[in-house]
Design brief:
Radius of gyration: 31 Å
Number of strands: 0
Largest sheet: none
Distance between the termini: 121 Å
Helix content: over 70%
Structural class: mainly alpha
């Protein structure tokens, strides 16, 4: 009797499953399952096919098909940085998901995607709200592997949320970021390689991405030896997964990984390696178009070629980087504005039954937005003004008499030369003696007054020849006494030169940035602007404009004219 009862229950459950899913719905589900197993599909073809399956599901009223195809689509848009479309689709899918159980993890995935999109657009509170919703859905997933994977992604997104809104020193959030990324990694590794729900390719793509984020975490602060070693360890672990033939990693993620490895070797001063990985990323991006990755490759190539002295290629990639960066920034700003307006409109729509309340909320939102904009603008302007005033104070406190002593000029070429025998003796011992260090430092002082640093073709080798020393000793003295590397040292001298020209001679304030860059020895206006801002904390245009508005002129006393 018991056997018959079990058989009856089996038939009944099979009938219920069949009754719940029509043949057309089963066909859509099969197509989506097969679709998830293929990774090397052109993004445009992938989008078109998913939109088609989503439309078929909507026509049948097949909610699961809508959620699955929508989840794949929303992640595709995220990889292409199409945040506006991501959020618009997310709103549709959230309505379909309302009051449903997240059996397969698709709903959690949808909220994860919208959370990231909001975060990248700077809407951090809304981003965190969607992320918490994603976690609450993920915790209810019955399948262990699916639950672990979705929670792992949520932890990773939590770390990204921290990074996007920190707005300051990464060291302040280092412990929290390390914890969340490592927690994400721990959960992902627990997912079975034989899981039917989470494919091996998906698991290891996620693990590689988390290794990459950990590596980037160590690249952002000061590039100490320990930080670079940690960054290299994590990035190469991720790269190993990408280069393994065991897994199929999406091209977009491979491009991202190659760029971060390029960044690593740029920081390690292994410039040819940096160039190699950036060029590999560009080659792959040429087939799988993504301007956000392309702009990173341009930046690393420009910096690496500059460091090895190839000014032509450095300038070529810097021009491409600047143009594309400006275009992307403008596009992101437009998307953020559209999203903010949409959110305000939604608040208004929800409260349209009470016009008084509607106008009150709209007014408050507008007031808050205006206040926040004003506060941020004022804060930024105040910080720039403070930097500007500090520069003026420093300039006013310097001695007005800039006449160079001829004895110090002579130091650059003649005074304090080591004999060849003495120099060779020191080289043989591989020791920089205090006496030699003092002589080189004295010659550097004369060099700083000579304005020979304005020559465009100046290198550490040519300067070492001028100072009758070698590049190793010169580099060590600059590092120990000037607390900079050679490039930063020369840039500081050049920027200081042009700052004094702008301050002392009003005619310079009328010149174009390109002329000022040429005047003080920079290869391009872009490099000049970056160096000026890095050294002084404000762009040259701001400094010039305020000098004009404040009508700053140096009043030269009679004594200074004597």
């Amino acid at each position: 009797m018991r056997k018959y009862l079990c058989f009856f229950l089996f038939l009944f459950s099979s009938f219920m499953v069949w009754a719940q899913n029509t043949p057309a719905e089963v066909a859509i589900k099969d197509k989506l399952d097969k679709f998830s197993l293929t990774s090397n599909i052109d993004p445009k073809q992938k989008e078109a096919r998913l939109l088609e399956l989503k439309a078929e599901s909507e026509k049948l009223g097949y909610d699961l098909g809508i959620l699955i195809s929508g989840n794949y689509l929303i992640k595709l848009y995220g990889r292409q940085y199409r945040y506006k479309e991501q959020l618009r689709l997310g709103d549709q899918l959230k309505k379909v998901a309302k009051n449903k159980k997240d059996t397969y993890g698709y709903i959690s995935g949808i909220y994860q995607s919208t959370s990231l999109a909001l975060g990248y657009l700077g809407l951090n509170d809304a981003s965190l709200k969607d992320l918490k919703k994603a976690i609450s859905y993920a915790e209810t997933i019955e399948d262990r592997d699916t639950r672990l994977y979705q929670l792992s992604v949520c932890y990773e997104n939590m770390a990204l949320n921290y990074e996007l809104k920190r707005g300051g020193d990464i060291n302040l959030l280092r412990d929290s970021l390390l914890y969340t990324y490592k927690k994400s990694l721990e959960m992902a590794k627990q997912v079975s390689d034989n899981s039917e729900a989470i494919r091996k390719n998906v698991k290891y793509d996620h693990i590689a991405y988390t290794y990459m984020r950990l590596g980037m975490l160590y690249l952002e602060p000061e590039d100490t030896k320990e930080n670079l070693e940690s960054a290299e360890k994590y990035l190469l672990e991720g790269l190993k997964i990408h280069e393994s033939k065991k897994y199929e990693i999406p091209a977009d993620n491979r491009i991202m990984m190659l760029n971060q490895v390029s960044w690593l070797y740029l920081e390690k001063k292994e410039y040819h390696k940096s160039i190699d990985y950036a060029e590999r990323a560009l080659k792959l991006e040429n087939v799988n178009k993504n301007p956000a990755h392309r702009v990173e490759s341009f930046e690393f190539l420009a910096d690496s070629y500059r460091e090895i002295g190839d000014k032509e290629k450095s300038g070529f990639y810097m021009d491409k980087y600047t143009y594309l960066k400006d275009s992307l920034s403008l596009a992101e700003k437009k998307e953020a504005d559209i999203t903010m307006k949409k959110m305000v409109k939604e608040v208004n729509d929800e409260n349209k039954q009470s016009s008084k309340k509607q106008w009150m909320i709209t007014g408050i939102l507008a007031l808050i937005a205006g206040l926040i904009t004003a506060i941020l603008w004022r804060k930024k302007n105040k910080a720039l003004r403070k930097k500007y005033e500090e520069m003026l104070v420093n300039l006013k406190n310097e001695k007005k008499d800039q006449v160079e002593e001829t004895s110090e000029e002579t130091d650059l070429d003649n005074t304090g030369e080591e004999s060849n025998d003495d120099l060779q003796s020191v080289i043989d011992k591989n020791i920089l003696s205090p006496d030699t260090e003092a002589k080189i430092q004295k010659k550097l002082t004369a060099f700083e007054k000579s304005e020979k640093y304005l020559k465009k073709d100046l290198t550490i080798s040519s300067l070492a020849v001028q100072l009758n020393t070698n590049t190793k000793y010169l580099s060590e003295v600059i590092k120990n006494k000037k607390f900079q590397n050679f490039n930063h040292y020369i840039n500081s001298l050049r920027i200081n030169y042009i700052v004094h020209k702008l301050y002392n001679e009003p005619k310079y304030r009328e010149y174009k940035i390109s002329y000022l860059a040429e005047e003080c020895g920079f290869a391009s206006p872009q490099v000049f602007v970056i160096a000026f801002k890095k050294i002084n904390g404000l762009p040259p245009s701001y400094f010039i404009q305020n000098l004009k508005e404040d009508k700053v002129n140096i009043l030269i006393s009679e004594d200074s004219l004597l």
